[in-house]
Design goal:
Radius of gyration: 24 Å
Membrane topology: Multi-pass membrane protein
CATH class: Mainly Alpha
Number of strands: 0
InterPro entries: MetI-like, MetI-like_sf
Largest sheet: none
Transmembrane segments: 9-34, 75-101, 110-132, 144-162, 183-206, 259-278
Helix content: over 70%
CATH topology: MetI-like fold
CATH architecture: Orthogonal Bundle
Domain ABC transmembrane type-1: 75-270
CATH superfamily: MetI-like
Structural class: mainly alpha
Protein name: Carbohydrate ABC transporter permease
Number of domains: 1
Order of helices and strands: HHHHHHHHHHHHHH
Shape: globular
Length: 293
């Protein structure tokens, strides 16, 4: 029977307490938002706008959101940028990583230096805005996609991953007459799937949660993504559209706070649904990239 010393027991107890506190700290805001989103207006006022588990839950807020054309339209825009953006970024980033992983590439170190410089240095908001304006992307949905087409950090992670693949695989493929494209698509990409899943998840979350680029580059409020609409709701800004104004109007059933919390929950659901499918690859990709790097 394994015997634990007193110091070991104290250490394990402290660690368990810390982990429990961290878990509670992470889960509590989500439980609070979920509870507030199904609370009636009367109970909200009665309990001073702090409800964890409502006594009489209601789905009225979700019904109003589902009936809102503004929320659905912004949701589809977020789906568009969170699908097209990461896919294009992952494709270009992976191609760039594969090219830079070739040790015989002329000027390879210079290219790596410039890529590393983009991680350490940033042009700033105003120069970026001027570039977007000169490209004619102001008030275009592509203004939220094209500036993020290449992930410098992800490129370096995938490059390190590809560099540490067995050399025999690449060499045998070339001996068999495989082209660079065939080697890339049939060997490098499948073997680097864990790293690609991790970087893809980073890009997906970044696109889904982003709203500041929409604030800078979009003048038409009908093109706002869901997070921008949610930001306007939470900051009590004016929101265009009779449907949205009607949804936010206080009634006997639910309050405006309930509507806001319900919208937050709807904004969280897609990421919560995607993450479990990528978690295994995400952990493996980050672990191998860190160890092999």
């Amino acid at each position: 029977m394994f015997y634990k010393s007193r110091s070991e027991i104290i250490y394990q107890t402290i660690i368990h307490i810390i982990v429990i506190l961290v878990a509670v700290t992470a889960v509590f805001p989500l439980v609070y938002v979920l509870g507030m989103s199904i609370t009636t207006k009367a109970e909200m006022i009665q309990r001073n706008y702090f409800v964890i588990i409502p006594k009489e839950p209601t789905l009225e807020a979700y019904k109003r959101i589902m009936a809102s054309s503004v929320v659905w339209h912004s949701f589809l825009i977020s789906v568009f940028r969170s699908t097209v953006g990461p896919l294009l970024a992952l494709a270009l980033t992976t191609i760039g990583a594969y090219v830079l992983a070739q040790r015989t590439l002329p000027g390879r170190n210079l290219f790596l230096f410039f890529i590393l410089a983009t991680i350490l240095l940033n042009g700033g908001m105003i120069p970026t805005y001027l570039v977007i304006k000169q490209l004619g992307l102001i008030n275009s949905l592509w203004s939220m996609v094209l500036p993020l087409l290449v992930d410098s950090f992800g490129l370096l992670v995938i490059k390190i991953f590809i560099e540490n693949l067995p050399d025999g695989l690449i060499e045998s493929a070339k001996i068999d007459g495989a082209s660079e494209w065939s080697t890339f698509t049939r060997i490098a990409v499948p073997l680097a799937a864990p790293a690609l899943a991790a970087i893809g998840l980073f890009n997906l979350v970044a696109h889904w949660n982003s709203w500041f680029d929409a604030l800078l580059y979009l003048n038409d409020k009908s093109k706002y993504p869901l997070q921008m609409v949610l930001k306007n709701m939470l900051t009590v800004d004016s929101i265009s559209g009779d449907n949205m104004n009607g949804m936010l109007k206080s009634t006997q059933a639910v309050s405006t706070e309930t509507i806001k919390m319900a919208t937050v929950v709807i904004g969280l659901v897609p990421i919560l649904c995607v993450y479990p499918f990528l978690q295994k690859h995400f952990v493996k990709g980050m672990y191998l990239g860190a160890v092999k790097g």
